[in-house]
Amino acid sequence: MGLFDKGVKKTKEGFFQRLSRALVGKSKVDDDVLDAIEEALVATDMGVDTTLKIVDSLEERVGRDKYMSMDELTSMLREEIGDLLDVEGSETLGEPFDLTKKPLVVMVVGVNGVGKTTTIGKLASRYKAMGKKVIVGAADTFRAAAVEQLVIWAERAGVDIVKQGMGADPASVAYDTVKSAVARGSDVVLIDTAGRLHNRIDLMNELTKIRNVMRKVIPDAPHEVLLVLDASTGQNAYQQAKEFSKATDITSLAVTKLDGTAKGGVVIGIVDQLKVPVKFIGIGEGVDDLKVFDKKEFVNSLFSKEDIDK
């Protein structure tokens, strides 16, 4: 089983099972088949708007060509989903972030429980393994456990960490972190922020404050605002992404727990609706289970019939 096969296995199983039941005995695409496709896509939590966009395109093609085989249908579905994932910033040459920036400053945002701090730890480990000098900033001062968790990850990865006491000003921590990064010649700066609820305006405003104080040291910081989302929450993840995009300029996404859910279609829906690329996916608990997202491999795995029954 390939890397992305593992990540989309449950989503793929549900999608193909629904589709297969609808296509039994069919030799061509008709309204019943299109309805079944719509139902199958919605069931993956792709979202109604994105699903209808795909189905409308298929319907137009069927109406124009009058006949479409099942193989042609599958091929077109692959193309449609691939096109939806093809947004600005989605093309990478092995490395999602621009490491020519020194230091590269990444502000990581997201609600509690999505795996935000764990994702930062895995990113720190990844860049340390690449030979980069990494520093993390524990700016989630709202929860003592968040700082403690980040300290553990920093020690495990062997990277520097800047922290203050619980209740400290998060912007102050962020400022100290980027200032230390410049002084130490760090390559990568990862700033953890409070696991804010997306409907808490005061916490959202804090993101702006953090960004502004970092710019006093590095004028174009942060270079990336990485939103971490939990795929298993389905459309709730989309709502979070929508609200965060209103509060700050989200530049990239990390989607966690993709391997444990049948709602992997939410990845496609979020990218389509917000035009923000997925840069990393989490497909396990191990330090090496944060992988660079490859949209072509993702789509190929989604439509591969191998491993469905394994």
Rg from Cα:
21 Å
Largest sheet: 8 strands, mixed
Portion in helices: 40-55%
> Judging from the principal axes of the Cα atoms, what is the shape?
elongated
Strand order of the largest sheet: 3-2-4-1-5-6-7-8
* SSE-based structural type: alpha/beta
Spans of at least 5 consecutive residues whose pLDDT stays below 50 are none
Strand content: 5-15%
Overall pLDDT confidence: 85
Termini distance? 9 Å
Number of helices: 11
How many E strands? 8
Q: What is the N-to-C order of secondary-structure elements (H for helix, E for strand)?
A: HHHHEHEHEHEHEHEHEEH
Q: What report would you give on this structure?
A:
It contains 11 helices and 8 strands. With 310 residues, the protein is an alpha/beta fold. It has an 8-stranded mixed β-sheet, with helices on both faces. Strand 2, helix 6 (144-157) and strand 3 form a beta-alpha-beta unit. The chain is elongated, with a radius of gyration of 21 Å. The termini are close together.
